[in-house]
Each structure stands twice: as C-alpha cells, then as structure tokens.
C-alpha cells in the first residue's frame, strides 16, 4: 500500500510541471497560418555554449498549417496562441522571433529542416496537437517520441537533445543552419518586445 501511495505522489508531482495553457479555439482559428511552402519537419535544438550540452528540443511543423511544438518551453508571442505546447500562427516572421528568443551569448540554436510528404507532415502535426502538455525536462523525450511514432525509427527515444539532433542530421536531405548571437542571457526583454510588436499592430507575416 505504501508503495502505491508513494507512486501516486510521484506521478502527481511530475504532472505539476506541465503547462496546461489552452488558448480559446476561436483565437487559434484567427491566428492559423496556412503553409504555402514545402511540407517539412524542422528539428530545433538549443545548445549551451558553455558546456556544449543540449538545452532544449522543439519541432517546427509545416503541414496544412504551420506550428511549433515547443514542449515545456518558455517562449511566447501574442500572435502565436498556444494550446498544450503547440503554438499556432507560426509564420516565417514569428519563426524569426522564436529563434531570436533562444539564441544568445550562452546558447546557439540549430535548425535542421527536412522536406517530407504532405501526408507525413500532417501526421506529425496531428500527433503534436494530440500530445498534451509536457512536463519540465521532458522536451527531448516528447520530441523523440513524436518522431518515432511517425516512422523516424533511427531517432532514439531519449532525454538528450543532441542525440536527437545527431540522428536526425543523418537523414537524407536534411538541411542544417546554426544561429548565434551576442545578445545577453536575460531574454525577458524579447518577450516584452513581442508584446509591444503586437500592440503596434505590425504585419504578422
């Protein structure tokens, strides 16, 4: 009995880390960005410049619409309403804001893009939408799980972002870009800038 109680308590504590934010459906519908480019999956890996370790994993999904699955992430933009770690309205402009937020003097951001069939891109999109909120420190685990569920068998199920990055990078056709910046580590100002940008009504695209 004591074991069961302890297990239940552990599960409850683990669940406390998940962000169950859910923007209203009508807000998400208004923000929806219809993908006009190729259908693709982009793996985002944030790497700590001080120790070389992976700090975060996310997936940019360009299917019937464009979103980012940002599990247990801290980024936010008013034009990209979020439902359980999926940010909608992820236009190219919003993507630049997302990458800029994560890239600073102590962190670089690696984006690996892979063009896939519309069917596969849509399957990954639907998996991400239905995945639910992710607990803190489970970003890589959830990203690798979604990839494996959709046929990326060479990607290991892991908690280590760089292991996913290495395996994904070996797939034929992957295009890799690394972003660096000398911006200070405190990136709260960038979130405030996002709020100001939305308030000024600058074009979203």
Layout of secondary structure:
Elements: H1 2-15, H2 25-31, E1 40-48, E2 54-62, E3 66-69, E4 82-83, E5 86-87, H3 92-102, E6 107-115, H4 118-129, H5 139-149, H6 161-169, E7 175-179, H7 188-200
Antiparallel strand pairs: 1-2, 1-6, 2-3, 3-5, 4-5, 6-7
Plain-language structure description:
β1 and β2 form a beta hairpin. Helices cover 38% and strands 20% of the residues. With 205 residues, it is an alpha+beta fold. The protein is built from seven helices and seven strands, in the order ααβββββαβαααβα. The chain has a seven-stranded antiparallel sheet with strand order 4-5-3-2-1-6-7, sandwiched between helices. The chain is globular, with a radius of gyration of 17 Å. It has one domain.
* Total of domains: 1
Through-space gap between termini:
56 Å
Count the strands? 7
Main sheet specs: 7 strands, antiparallel
Low-confidence stretches: 1-17
Concise synopsis of the structure shown:
The chain is built from seven helices and seven strands. It is α+β, with helices and mostly antiparallel strands and 205 residues long.
Which key phrases capture this entry?
single chain, 205 residues, alpha+beta, seven-stranded antiparallel sheet, disordered N terminus
